[in-house]
Amino acid sequence: MSVAHGNRWGYLRLGIQGSLQRGASSGSLEMNPAPIQIVGRHRFEDMFLKSSHHWVISIREADEIEIPRPDFINPRVNLAFWDLINGPGIATPEDVESVYQFSLEWMKQVLEDPTKANLVVHCFAGVSRSSAMALIPLLLYYSSFRLAAHPPPGCLLPNDD
Question: Domains in the chain, please, with CATH?
Fold first, then answer.
């Protein structure tokens, strides 16, 4: 897939540089797993998050006022919407745009120092909303919708311990 410079998605081309490495012995290309964890709310609340090494996309219920883990103040985006596809309180284009902009900043950190770019994406169950929103940083990281949808072994998937 070729991406033209200046295109909104032109940043995708940069993502592949941070995630591909040449195998030392074979000379083949190997894909590093994305440093992304998709988890449920309870797991998120129990996680040890290093403030200098973690980024968070936090999704709560549309009517929930309290932000999960308010003590975590490093890079994060807080969203509130229902796990529905239509009606009031669903994810908006603005929600998607905020995750996209956040993911662009996260991707810069991945390219600069991947050890400080662990991304945690959570919703209540860690299945629908978090997985859907995690596709945005996954697309940036892998520069491929196929790889984003089917990451290589080692990437933590929904509710994976």
Answer: 8-149 (3.90.190)
